[in-house]
Design goal:
By secondary structure, this protein is α/β, with parallel strands linked by helices. Helix content is 34%, strand content 12%.
């Protein structure tokens, strides 16, 4: 397998290793939270409609020994649940929810903007100190230095542009060698204010850039989506176009400001959103891989007290993670001095 994937890696142009610049800033996080709040009031951002081309697009791999597939140019009215590949069937044991749960469902998403924050997160959340935290990711294809090897790292192909993560092929191969065979794909591609693409383009790119990794043994998710109506529509269109894609799971992001004075309606909205994703997934595992609930400490702990047990007991949810903002943020899992915050400890030990 190493030889197979290395054929892709050697075709990369020499690029200096650098952290990608496309990860959203703290201001962008707040912008996304505001957009999600608008959706609760019945609003959603504009999103491009899929084009209606009539031909089937076939991709040629850079290595003739790595199979590729085709992405349909016509989105069906509904996504089939059996037969064929990808969204039309399963890809093996790693597509089962029990296999994807692994050592546990609960994780954290580490920030990528501040190297000091990353190191503080790595020191605060270890398999010994916080044993219920079993996995992490960081919007990039390689773990940050010093990560506890007992905590599973999930690499991500965050963007379709190779220049944003020139080391994707090499890092993905290393992940497989280390036994980390679950990959995230694109981050929030349906959001018009970030790095938008239409659903058919997303399906074509997924087939071209990620399908080969399923052949190499990885379980790769659908693009990680925000949870407004426009992004859910994008996801359904993507699954319709990507009929030859071996999609391993559905991934969603819930980023919101909690209701002032209490969290009950936010809890109801969260459960409604996850159940909607479960319906779209049609039997595939669902990951709620980016949860960020901004609000007063009492409201956030009330929110987590309800949703964490619900997620743990939900047979359709394979994993979930709280998104760790910068340690200066009031919703951070860290204190400003880098130690684990009361909220971080609460989430880790609930």
């Amino acid at each position: 397998m190493r030889g197979l994937v290395s054929k892709l890696a050697v075709m990369l142009l020499p690029v200096a290793l650098a952290m990608p610049s496309y990860r959203v800033s703290e201001d962008a996080v707040m912008q996304r939270a505001a957009e999600a709040d608008e959706e609760i009031d019945g609003c959603s951002p504009d999103n491009p409609e899929p084009s209606a081309a009539s031909s089937t697009i076939t991709f040629t791999s850079s290595s003739s020994s790595i199979p590729t597939g085709t992405a349909s140019s016509t989105a069906p009215a509904s996504v089939p649940t059996s037969g064929g590949q990808g969204t039309n069937g399963t890809t093996g044991s790693s597509s089962s929810i029990s296999a994807q749960i692994g050592k546990g469902k609960r994780g954290i998403i580490m920030p990528l903007d501040d190297p000091d924050d990353i190191q503080y997160y790595i020191k605060a959340f270890t398999s010994d100190a916080t044993p219920k935290i079993t996995w992490t990711s960081n919007y990039y294809s390689a773990p940050s230095e010093g990560l506890d090897p007992k905590i599973q790292f999930i690499p991500q192909r965050y963007n379709v542009f190779a220049s944003d993560d020139a080391n994707w092929e090499i890092n993905a191969e290393k992940a497989l060698e280390a036994g980390n065979n679950i990959f995230f794909s694109y981050g929030e591609p349906g959001l018009t204010s970030s790095h938008p693409m239409d659903a058919q383009t997303g399906a074509n790119d997924w087939m071209q850039q990620l399908q080969n990794w399923t052949t190499a043994g990885a379980t790769v998710g659908a693009p990680c989506m925000l949870t407004n109506d426009a992004d859910f529509d994008w996801l359904e269109s993507f699954l319709g176009y990507c009929t030859g894609c071996d999609i391993g799971f559905i991934a969603i992001h819930w980023i919101n400001t909690l209701d002032a004075g209490g969290a009950p309606s936010s809890i109801a909205n969260f459960k409604e959103i996850v159940n909607k994703a479960i319906g779209i997934a049609k039997g595939k595992p669902v990951w709620v891989d980016n949860i960020l609930a901004s609000g007063a400490h009492a409201d956030t702990t009330a929110f987590l007290s309800e949703i964490v047990p619900w997620l743990e007991s939900n047979d359709n949810v394979a994993r979930y993670a709280y998104s760790g903002p910068a340690r200066t943020d009031s919703s951070s899992l860290l204190n400003p001095d880098g130690s684990i915050s009361a909220l971080g400890s609460f989430y880790a030990n609930l």
